[in-house]
Sequence to fold (100 residues):
Amino acid sequence: MAHLVCYDIADNSLRTKIGKKILEAGLDRINKSVYLGTITESGLKQLEVWLNSQMNTSSDSQDSLIIIPVNAQQIQQMRVLGRNDLDKDELSGDKSTLIF
Fold:
């Protein structure tokens, strides 16, 4: 299933560390602090445990991270204003790859 992950983190090093981990988990950055992509339930659980441990080390009580499940239809209906080269099929997990 696809998930949207977004955060508001004040500390640069923590923000960078978390962003790299989300990318390693296979999600795509669709905005500076917003990621979207498909991830397995076990992968999501592992990521969430790691993210929770990192957020608990944050000294800023205003920091937050949000994970939202989204379905493929919602991704296809997403509207993008401005310049962004999103591949909605890839983000929703609907893209098929043929290997010859």
The CA atoms of residues 80 and 86 lie 9 Å apart. Strands lie at 2-8, 28-31, 34-38, 64-70. The longest strand covers residues 2-8. The domain at 2-92 is CATH 3.30.70.240 (Alpha-Beta Plaits).
